[in-house]
Amino acid sequence: MNKRYSYLPIVVVVSIILAACSSRQNPPNLLMIETQKTIEQAQSQGAAQNAPVAFNAAQEHMQRAEAANSRGDFQAASSLLEVAMAEAEYAIAKSEADQAQKAAEQISQGLQQLEQEVNN
């Protein structure tokens, strides 16, 4: 073999190994923790009752992300976690909006009762 081409197989093998290593993604551990905390926050703020569709979707995507992570599909796990995070944040916002609406209605009813008492 020509001396000039004797290193070619080594260069090819090293290049393939480096390419394989660089394309491997790490598990989305931090995102998983953050998403779980956001889902727990949503639950503690009443999202399961006030925004059940979004809250349940967040939990379902979290479970699917955990399964993807377990089988080593870190890219799918990351994508599913991002969706779960968005759904949990939406559930929190909807729950807060519903609670604010209920509080506004109670205040309005209280003001109407005061007006009636003043007018009578």
Question: Quick summary of this structure?
Answer:
By secondary structure, the protein is mostly helical. It is 84% helix and 0% strand.
CATH C-level: Mainly Alpha
* Overall spatial form: rod-shaped
Named CATH topology: Substrate Binding Domain Of Dnak, Chain:A, Domain 2
Structural category is mainly alpha
Name the beta content range. Answer: under 5%
Nearest-integer average pLDDT = 87
* Poorly predicted ranges: none
- Span between N and C termini? 110 Å
Radius of gyration: 27 Å
Number of domains: 1
| Biggest sheet statistics | none
Q: What's the helix-strand series?
A: HHHHH
Which properties best describe this structure?
120 residues, mainly alpha, Substrate Binding Domain Of Dnak, Chain:A, Domain 2, 0% strand
Describe the 3D structure.
- This protein has helices spanning 8-23, 29-44, 47-50, 52-70, 74-119.
- The chain is an all-alpha fold and 120 residues long.
- It has one domain (27-119): Substrate Binding Domain Of Dnak, Chain:A, Domain 2 (Up-down Bundle), CATH 1.20.1270.
- It is rod-shaped.
- The mean pLDDT is 87.
